[in-house]
Amino acid sequence: MTRGTTPVVPDDGLTTAERRRRPVVLVNTGDGKGKTSAAMGVAMRGWAQGWDVGVYQFVKSATWRTGERDALTRLGGLSGAVTWEQMGTGWSWTRRGDGQQVEAREAAVEGWEYIREGLAEQRHRLWILDEFTYPMDWGWIDADEVAEALRARPGTQHVVITGRRCPQAIVDVADLVTEMRKIKHPFDNGQRGQAGIEW
Amino acid sequence: MTRGTTPVVPDDGLTTAERRRRPVVLVNTGDGKGKTSAAMGVAMRGWAQGWDVGVYQFVKSATWRTGERDALTRLGGLSGAVTWEQMGTGWSWTRRGDGQQVEAREAAVEGWEYIREGLAEQRHRLWILDEFTYPMDWGWIDADEVAEALRARPGTQHVVITGRRCPQAIVDVADLVTEMRKIKHPFDNGQRGQAGIEW
């Protein structure tokens, strides 16, 4: 990453400073590694800017503690604000007291409703919607509706979305889309994931 | 990333636990975004495991403070150990007192010498060699020599190498290689990099 000049000078009437502050939607997709870890790297950068960072992990179990969660919530305790939510069988704000499990589909929809409200309210400066492509890909959440909410979001809210098979509607609204492509993976040879590297 | 089973059970005489602790070489290459930020996500995971983490940034200016540097050195102050070195015009351990600038090529070679010694001494548990492909690609550092040092490294040292145009010798020794491929980039439309997202 360089801070150099761009190949095109846009005719958008914005100054360079304004263009540097423009809110962006980033997508990390593809079958390869690094989609979540790159999003977490961006979360660190946002934290260092003093931004309010919200991480919403779809799919991942609510009880699965990852290194990035430990590190970022620790940073959030130092300065800035880091909110960390994992869906599992219900989000922290929806978890039933009666021990009843929420269906994954219902939990995903509840998660998106909460995020959509939060975007309208500018709850965070940087949003990490981890593995958010899956509930869209499965038809649980309407990708066009998400794209519309992203287009309509007020202020300067950056959004990072990760996961395989990113719907085209999200690619269309995104400013930057990266495909992580597997060239060589130890799972091919029977190597297993390990703490410190994979989570 | 799942913790599930692998498609192949390797015939290497190792137990699953041993295989989980096997040292790995990871490469993030390609022209797309996320190579460094994904490496920094892995650094967070390593930190959370209590590992000694060493980040060596080639090419990047020694005075360029990034968010990931702020975040990880802050974490290193809490627990674990995070060493952060940026090459610029000389590393912290080689910087001349006389204000004389070291040639980039010389600095890169000195960096590699120091890292090679450190690998032999098991200085870190997790090494991040950021943008290390460039001095190899430019012919300043011999990729075969690096590959040999990686193969010969003792103990359980994980190494992450980032940068475009990764030499084949490094791909060959790597356990996991991911290509970050640009699908859509705001620079195409004259958008500039910005703090909190790109650094």
What is the structure about, briefly put?
The structure is a homodimer of 199-residue chains. Chain A is of the alpha/beta class.
Task: Characterise the protein shown here.
Two copies of one chain form a homodimer. Chain A has 199 residues and is of the alpha/beta class. The first copy, chain A, has one domain (36-180): P-loop containing nucleotide triphosphate hydrolases (Rossmann fold). Chain A is built from seven helices and six strands, in the order αβαβαβαβααβαβ. In chain A, strands 3-2-4-5-1-6 form a six-stranded parallel beta sheet. In chain A, helix 2 runs parallel beside helix 3 (67-78). Chains A and B meet through helix 1, strand 1, helix 2, helix 3 and strand 6 of A and helix 1, strand 1, helix 2, helix 3 and strand 6 of B.
Provide tags for this entry.
corrinoid adenosyltransferase activity (chains A, B), 7 helices, alpha/beta, homodimer, 6 strands, 199 residues, 6-stranded parallel sheet, Rossmann fold, Cob(I)yrinic acid a,c-diamide adenosyltransferase (chains A, B)
**Number of spatially distinct domains of chain A:** 1
Name of the top-level CATH class of chain A: Alpha Beta
> Architecture of chain A in CATH?
3-Layer(aba) Sandwich
Helix content of chain A: 25-40%
Enzyme class (chains A, B): transferase
Keywords (chains A, B): Transferase
Protein name (chains A, B): Cob(I)yrinic acid a,c-diamide adenosyltransferase
EC number (chains A, B): 2.5.1.17
How is the topology of this model organized?
The structure is a homodimer of 199-residue chains.
Chain A: H1 16-20, E1 25-29, H2 35-48, E2 52-57, H3 67-78, E3 81-86, H4 104-121, E4 126-130, H5 133-137, H6 143-151, E5 158-162, H7 168-173, E6 176-184
Parallel strand pairs in A: 1-5, 1-6, 2-3, 2-4, 4-5
